[in-house]
What we know:
By secondary structure, the protein is α/β, with parallel strands linked by helices. It is 36% helix and 20% strand.
Amino acid sequence: xxxxxxxxxxxxxxxxxxxxxxxxxxxxxxxxxxxxxxxxxxxxxxxxxxxxxxxxxxxxxxxxxxxxxxxxxxxxxxxxxxxxxxxxxxxxxxxxxxxxxxxxxxxxxxxxxxxxxxxxxxxxxxxxxxxx
Length: 132
């Protein structure tokens, strides 16, 4: 879980031009861009694939809002285990999940590389000496 790392998010009424500019300025690790309710709860996500498609159609930048670009978010809760997280990633074909707090606000992000590292650590720790 990646906590307290700055990330780019958008209001649901953000114009597509703002989404494109914000995504271009985002850190390399960020694959999804949260769209938030006014109270900070997660409403949806905009994927990097959507941002790339948006960049190829500049004619819609002034006609489209973040809410038009978003999709159902792939999420886990803070207390979900890695098995649940992996299932969500596979189901949503996502490399990154948004981790939600009990209040529905963003607690952080979980990347596929973190799941791989946790799996490797768990299987290495439990493997017999001869298998290492």
